[in-house]
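Ticket opened by: R.M.
Priority: normal
Category: complex prediction / small molecule

The reporter submitted a protein together with magnesium ion and asked that the result be attached to this ticket for the collaborator who will pick it up next week. Submitted input follows.
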Amino acid sequence: MPLTINNLNHQIHDGHLQRWLLTRISLEIAPGECVALTGDSGSGKTTLLNLIAALEPLQQGEIYVSGQPLHRATDKERSRLRKQTLAIIFQHYNLLSCLNVLDNIGFSARLAGRYDESHSLSLAKHLGIDHLLEHYPDTLSGGEMQRVAIARALSARPKLLLADEPTGNLDNRNSDQVVKLLLSLAKSHHSALLMVTHSSAIAEKMDKVYQLKDGCLSRRLLGEQNG
Ligand SMILES: Nc1ncnc2c1ncn2[C@@H]1O[C@H](COP(=O)(O)OP(=O)(O)OP(=O)(O)O)[C@@H](O)[C@H]1O
Ligand SMILES: [Mg+2]
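Result attached by the on-call engineer:
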């Protein structure tokens, strides 16, 4: 399985108090499966993605990425997992300002040791950013930066792709294209996709929809209203 989470609990500091943000979270995502993660602002969606990507220390519970236990991994194993197995599209892009668009796209693939320029160029073309390859991030619009971040995440062909509101800054046409591309690449590479989205229309294109509310994760049946 690309992702298995068992009984995860996570506490945060809220002023002087400790508060449980995530409680008894369990989730399984199969190869090629595309899952939407919804929930109000502040419900813990980004925190959950950061825990899966081993960017925040796990407090309680188990996370297996591609069968490997993150909760028992050494720093070296965690860093290898981040480079080789999973990719994350951040809510705020996190592009490298000193690299142009082409080098930003190829960055993850280079880290994973599987850089392939034709794959980078094909992703750029699919995402409509192939005219920007020589540009630097500070000259791009929010939507263009978002598409570069998406291409960079896909360049290393991850087994598990985590995407935090990847269409948040895109107009409807680009957003539709990006979602179609993510879904088709996930299916053709047998990668699992976990995508945070506030859009019901996008959530309904996924195989399954989960909602985070009051710390708990529950499955929403497709077609059910947000609430
Ligand atoms: N390291 C931290 N220390 C303390 N509080 C934190 C920390 N990280 C997140 N929080 C708090 O946890 C809550 C959840 O944050 P998170 O960013 O995960 O929400 P979210 O569901 O992604 O929201 P949004 O939809 O606005 O992006 C927020 O109240 C936030 O302030
Ligand atoms: Mg968030």
